[in-house]
Amino acid sequence: MSRHNSANGFSTADKSDEEATQKDYQLTSVKDRGYTRGRSITMKSSMKDQAEGKFHKVKGKLKEIAGKLSRKPELEAGGKDEKIAGKVQEKIGQVENVLGK
Question: Which end of the chain is more exposed for a tag (fewer CB within 10 A), N or C?
C-alpha cells in the first residue's frame, strides 16, 4: 500500500487502494446477504404460490367485472372460478410458509 503525505499533513491512500477497499466492501456485503455474482435469486415455493395466487385473484376479479359489464355470463363465471382458484393457491402458500416448506 503506497501512502503519501498531502499538503495538510494527513496521510491519504492513492486511488487504487480506495478502489480495492471499495471492491472488498461490495463483495463482503454481497456475501453477507447470501447472494453470489452470476446466480439468480430464487423464490421459495410458498412465496411463489402466494404471489401467483394473488395474481390469479386479481385476474379473476377483472374477468368477473368484464363479464358483468359486457353481459357475458361465461366470462363472469370464468372470472369467479379463477378468483377462487387464486384464493386456494394463496392459502396453500401461506400454509407452506407456516410449515416451513
Answer: N
